[in-house]
Amino acid sequence: MATRSDQTGNQGSAQDQMVAGSAWMTAGSIFSRILGAVYIIPWNIWFGAFYLQGNALYGKGYNIYSFFLIAAIAGVPSAIAKQVAHYNALNEYGISVRLYKRGLEIALVTGISIALLMFFGAPLFTGGDQHLIPVLHSLAWAILIIPTMSLTRGYFQGFQQMAPSAISQFVEQLVRVLYMLLTAFVIMRVLKGNWVTAVSQSTFAAAIGALAGLLILGVYYWRRRHYFRGLVANSNNELVVPANQLYKEIIAQAVPFIVLGAGITIFQLIDQYTFAPIMHLAGTYTDAHLNDLFALFGVNANKLIMITISLSSALAVTVVPLLSESYTRGNKQEISAQLSNAFLMFEFVMIPSALGMAAIASPLNLVFYGRSHAALAASILAFSSYLSILLGLYTVVSALMQGISQNKRAVRYFLVGTVVKFVVQWPLVYFLGAFGPLIATGIGFTVTCYLIIHSLDQQFGINFAHIAKKTNGILLVSLGTYALARLVAWIGAFSGSQGRVVNFLIVMVAVIVAGYFYVYVVLRTRLADAILGPRVAGIRRRLHIR
Q1: Which residues, 6 or more positions from 45, have their beta carbon under 8 angstroms from its beta carbon?
Q2: HEC letters along 267-327
Q3: Residue 75: DSSP 8-state
């Protein structure tokens, strides 16, 4: 029987693992998202007058691709991470290896099938925009590669080895962005070519980046092959799991991941296929104007808020294997503690990031997207920044449900939120235009998140009093961060400049001043220690904060 000190030690170890894993995944996601946003500046400049149309086409293609990609991956990587962690907790590493091999077989079959469907069925998914066909053709190639890459990342994550995934993710994005910029420059500026061709090459970059990411994972696996073999050799080898059962376990765990993992994408696809028809009913608008509006709320703002949402996504990936281990041991107290830690870590990074981005929405939009529709674009970006808190929360709570094997229930709650989104979509878009889809998304995800959190509380007893006390501290410091960033942006506005260089300087000053304020206060008040653990003390000493 475990003593109290043993339980405390296990909880501390789990929290350390969560923090370390989150650090790697967060770093990988942040750098990848930053790269995925920074390329926008030269890309838009080189596209010139076609940049909003190019962004709209790029975004529409990627929304469809994201859905097909999730279907091709079929949730297998997350399912593999969860099941590998489950069998590793039982010291059955041999079964974990077999799971990985069976998962590869599934990923190859689904990847090839979905890629063929996307390539040859492209005309069926255009929604009347024929420019989408070459874009979807170029993206189909990535679907051949990414399932294998994602599955291997899931395998490493099941062993709590987050560094290979994070570094692979960064290299994938780096190579993708370099290819995008090179082809955009050559086609648009050197050859004076067609903007649709340039967008198609930009989307084909996903396949080039995926090859690079897979190569990095292969190098990591080769270097650590002796470690994995040693674990298998020292396994209990008491469980006998037939191949058919392994397939069933993977598929049973994977299918809900398709729906939940595609949650944000599904909502974006609803916007993509319903926005223009509803707006045509609301007034007389040209297709080009509606494409511009879609680019503003569905692509431009989305690319920037995904930088902050990636923080919670990284956390969600880390929590699933840890929760799975606790669930396998049947330790409800440990699960409750991990749920509290997950919520607090989410709030710790998401709230100040979202509020900070909202505070500098105007200069930030000018830096990335220039002066076209500047006032409307800034308002949409600010609203989307607030909305990103809900999107990030959905990412976390859906992962928590999967970690405790409540997949079907989580899917039901998501479907309820989707129905709500559908119900409110028409009137909100009709009366509020470009803000309508954003508000409808917020309402839908609010319903889903409430249902999931209520269910978690009913089953494991979330300590809301403990969370609320620290949440108040995070919120208070975050509001101070917002005020400082807003003040810098307000002072910067007196320059009257709408140029990229001046507004970049305003953004950088705001980020440095407000960011330092947040870091200093959370370290000075020991709020960071309470959430991230005692290792934060080392950071405080290096920064000479008492």
Answers
A1: 51
A2: HHHHHHHHHHHHHHHHCCCCHHHHHHHHHHHHHHHHHHHHHHHHHHHHHHHHHHHHHHHHH
A3: T
Per-10-residue mean pLDDT for the chain, 546 residues long?
42 50 59 75 88 90 87 67 74 78 82 92 87 94 89 78 81 92 94 93 94 92 82 73 65 67 88 94 90 92 85 63 75 84 88 96 93 92 96 90 82 95 96 96 97 92 88 95 96 88 95 94 89 77 76
Distance, in Å, from the CA atom of 163 to the CA atom of 220, rounded to the nearest integer, reads: 9
Secondary structure E strands in 177-301: none
Question: Structure tokens of 538?
Answer: 């080392």
HSE (side-chain half, CA atoms, 13 Å) at 349: 25
Burial (CB < 10 A; 0-12, 13-18, 19+), residue 310, is buried
Q: Which residues contact 7 (CB under 8 A, 6 or more apart)?
A: 331, 333, 334
Q: pTM value? A: 0.80
Taking the CA atoms of residue 282, residue 284, residue 290 and residue 296 in that order, the dihedral angle to the nearest 10 degrees is: -70
